[in-house]
Amino acid sequence: MSATAKGLILLCRPGFENECAAEAEGLAQRAGMHGRARTAPNSGSVHFVFDEVFDWDLALQAAPFHSLVFARQRSVWLERVANMPEDDRVTPLMRAILDLGIRFGRLEVETADTNEAKTLSGFLKRFIPHIERQLKATGFLRNKPELPTLHLFFKDSSQVDLGLSKPDDASPWNMGIARLRMPRNAPSRSTLKLAEAFDALMTEEEREQSLRAGLYAVDLGAAPGGWSFQFAERGIHVFAVDNGPLADSLKATGMVEHVKADGFNWRAPRKQVEWLVCDMVEQPARVAQLVSDWVASGKAKRCIFNLKLPMKKRFDELKKCRQIIDSRFKLHGDSYVLRIKHLYHDREEVTAYLAKLHPHAAESDKQYRR
To answer: Does 6 participate in catalysis according to the annotation?
Structure first.
């Protein structure tokens, strides 16, 4: 595979282009791949353009998807096909794809998550089947999940960017958008944040180990109970800590004990707590200190929490929270895993997964250690 990368294609929530661009720039510079970001306010996408071309595989390694917080999806940008004629868009696009000389296991068709881009949906439903048929006929699109994924990012009906990603190094959802169904009995839509976080921030092995019936969880700032619901549905006992009311339907499950207390002052129960979750509206630095104390001290094995970022200096605030967590774990020389994502169901907050790593932790976890 000799295709060369022009840069990175990053999809994000509209309004977070600057944070997305800053992340890409930082990662690329540390890898010696200098460049510049091209974007527009509320466009929902960022193109980070390298100053010189690089092997596409090296470009992927420079910006691993798990290291990006604000990018919903990331692919390496290989080529742009512009000014496709209205009477024959298939020919120039197919020519560009075949010229890459790469076989693909999947095809992802993408646009920005904007109202303007949504107007392309009808065109893409008619157009993409022609591309898929020709790619399969030529043997370039094969049903082999180990092969790279081809990303087609459409700006409009006449311009498309070609990108590549590898399996397990990109979002599993098209455009990074987790379209989850709202559970019928859930107390609030916030339940979707935790459901998405389980899938986006944890490995399958971690989910199997920690989302088992009979375990215990603590939900700080629980009311009305959207996050507690996710545990109760799995047979996990929850201490729901909040001075506010819980939904009656949640209490009726028998899996949730409502503790009327302040989440910052309440102390851990005399149980082995597998989970701490926290979705309190509070200063991000205070939340970072609170959850890192719980996990570093062993009061909970793992945690998922939200950081409500300020409108200005989001990137700086997130960096501050990382430093707080790192300092807490360094007190006793402990290693930990910290994964942070701006999820589809998030708005101004980001969601993080934090767990303490033991000395016998798997070699594969080292990429997440801080």
So the answer is: no
